[in-house]
């Protein structure tokens, strides 16, 4: 029993555990955010369906020994709690430097010739 059954059970349980770890790793997003990166935080008390899901942007100060992140807001103050990677979303574009336009009304629209899933709008601005 100790030479045949127990080693077989151990091999079988190790194979099942490796399968569960692989399945978990494939579904969970493992993100590491560098210090100084701009991130948005998931809003835990979102009001209704039309409210934004994320708040921010905040900058990453450091990561703790337990894998959470310390964040700083735009005024330079540290946030009162730490955030796990699953509660953060990396801001890829510096939207403060981007050019924006205010449109009074949309005059016409068409499907893009390059990508049929993209709609192009023609509007009148100020």
Overview of this protein structure:
This protein is an alpha+beta fold. It contains one helix and six strands, in the order H-E-E-E-E-E-E. The protein has one helix at 5-27, and strands at 38-42, 54-63, 69-72, 88-90, 103-111, 119-125. The strands form two sheets. A four-stranded antiparallel beta sheet has the order 3-2-1-4, with no helix packed on it. A two-stranded antiparallel ribbon has the order 5-6. It is flat and about 85 Å long. The mean pLDDT is 84.
Strand content range: 25-35%
What coarse outline follows from CA principal-axis ratios? flat
CATH topology heading of the domain at 38-90: SH3 type barrels
Show unreliable segments.
Answer: none
- What is the helical fraction, as a range of percent? 10-25%
Helix and strand run: HEEEEEE
Number of helices: 1
Rg from C-alpha positions? 24 Å
Largest sheet: 4 strands, antiparallel
If you average the pLDDT, what whole number results?
84
* CATH class category of the domain at 38-90: Mainly Beta
Counted beta strands? 6
SSE layout and pairing:
Elements: H1 5-27, E1 38-42, E2 54-63, E3 69-72, E4 88-90, E5 103-111, E6 119-125
Antiparallel strand pairs: 1-2, 1-4, 2-3, 5-6
Any descriptors?
single chain, 126 residues, alpha+beta, SH3 type barrels, two-stranded antiparallel ribbon, 30% strand
In summary, what is this structure?
The protein has 1 helix and 6 strands; from the N terminus they run H-E-E-E-E-E-E. The protein has one helix spanning 5-27; strands spanning 38-42, 54-63, 69-72, 88-90, 103-111, 119-125.
